[in-house]
């Protein structure tokens, strides 16, 4: 079920007033009407049911009134927490990978400035834009997972940030590879039911030998899917779905 994520805090009567982009989205895109019920998530937290209390077309604002919080059963995040380390891919394909993996429930995305990446550097505006993509994807999919996106960085810096982010969780680290000589099966790698899974997915040119060695030294196991050659953005959602299917 779709949800609408709001950052405004309800007042003492449970009223949330929205304007600007939120107003335009609800009125022009969702085409909501007064009296209609809406699933909302305040700051991306526990979803609540709200009634469209008032739509003011002159002053261009909308008021929602919270009615009830959805049951905890519907808001439990899937296990394990999946962290995607995605080597930067060019154009809208990076956006596609982030959007699809957010809809699937990935917990965090760490873009990697890899040795073979066409994109050599990024600014903070890209991260802010991707946060909007994640918000839209969560609204569309109704995902209860508060997916986070981090600033693109070189592999060594990003991996240190990933370990800090996971804070000691029992973690399985997987490096997805196109080389079919690898004998590690996904089922075998996940047999110990980890609390978190890190997926390292390369870019168009793959992951360099130096980067591969670095990941292996840090406990990553190479896994090859016995399927067709996949684009980077396809490999990301494919691997995410495979992990969830095995562990959930």
TrEMBL record:
<dbReference type="InterPro" id="IPR029026">
    <property type="entry name" value="tRNA_m1G_MTases_N"/>
</dbReference>
<dbReference type="Pfam" id="PF04452">
    <property type="entry name" value="Methyltrans_RNA"/>
</dbReference>
<keyword id="KW-0949">S-adenosyl-L-methionine</keyword>
<dbReference type="InterPro" id="IPR046886">
    <property type="entry name" value="RsmE_MTase_dom"/>
</dbReference>
<dbReference type="InterPro" id="IPR006700">
    <property type="entry name" value="RsmE"/>
</dbReference>
<dbReference type="InterPro" id="IPR029028">
    <property type="entry name" value="Alpha/beta_knot_MTases"/>
</dbReference>
<comment type="similarity">
    <text>Belongs to the RNA methyltransferase RsmE family.</text>
</comment>
<feature type="domain" description="Ribosomal RNA small subunit methyltransferase E methyltransferase">
    <location>
        <begin position="80"/>
        <end position="244"/>
    </location>
</feature>
<protein>
    <recommendedName>
        <fullName>Ribosomal RNA small subunit methyltransferase E</fullName>
        <ecNumber>2.1.1.193</ecNumber>
    </recommendedName>
</protein>
<dbReference type="GO" id="GO:0070042">
    <property type="term" value="F:rRNA (uridine-N3-)-methyltransferase activity"/>
</dbReference>
<keyword id="KW-0698">rRNA processing</keyword>
<dbReference type="InterPro" id="IPR015947">
    <property type="entry name" value="PUA-like_sf"/>
</dbReference>
<keyword id="KW-0489">Methyltransferase</keyword>
<keyword id="KW-0808">Transferase</keyword>
<dbReference type="GO" id="GO:0005737">
    <property type="term" value="C:cytoplasm"/>
</dbReference>
<comment type="function">
    <text>Specifically methylates the N3 position of the uracil ring of uridine 1498 (m3U1498) in 16S rRNA. Acts on the fully assembled 30S ribosomal subunit.</text>
</comment>
<keyword id="KW-0963">Cytoplasm</keyword>
<dbReference type="GO" id="GO:0070475">
    <property type="term" value="P:rRNA base methylation"/>
</dbReference>
């Amino acid at each position: 079920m779709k949800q609408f994520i709001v950052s405004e805090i309800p007042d003492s009567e449970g009223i949330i007033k929205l304007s600007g982009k939120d107003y335009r989205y609800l009125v022009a895109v969702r085409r909501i009407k007064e009296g209609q019920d809406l699933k909302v998530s305040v700051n991306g937290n526990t979803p609540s049911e709200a009634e469209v209390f008032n739509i003011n077309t002159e002053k261009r604002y909308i008021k929602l009134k919270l009615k009830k919080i959805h049951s905890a059963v519907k808001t439990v995040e899937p296990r394990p927490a999946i962290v995607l380390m995605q080597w930067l891919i060019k154009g809208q394909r990076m956006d596609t990978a982030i959007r699809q993996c957010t809809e699937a429930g990935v917990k965090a995305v760490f873009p990697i400035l890899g040795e073979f990446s066409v994109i050599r550097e990024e600014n903070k505006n890209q991260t802010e834009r991707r946060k909007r993509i994640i918000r839209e994807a969560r609204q569309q999919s109704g995902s209860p997972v508060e997916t986070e996106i981090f600033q693109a960085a070189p592999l060594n810096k990003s991996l240190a940030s990933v370990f800090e982010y996971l804070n000691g969780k029992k973690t399985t680290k997987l490096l997805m590879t196109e080389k079919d000589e690898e004998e590690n099966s996904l089922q075998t790698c996940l047999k110990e039911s980890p609390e978190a899974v890190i997926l390292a997915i390369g870019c168009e040119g793959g992951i360099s030998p130096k980067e591969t060695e670095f990941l292996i030294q840090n406990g990553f196991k190479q896994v090859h899917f016995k399927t067709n050659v996949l684009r980077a953005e396809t490999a990301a959602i494919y691997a995410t779905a495979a992990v969830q299917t095995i562990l959930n």
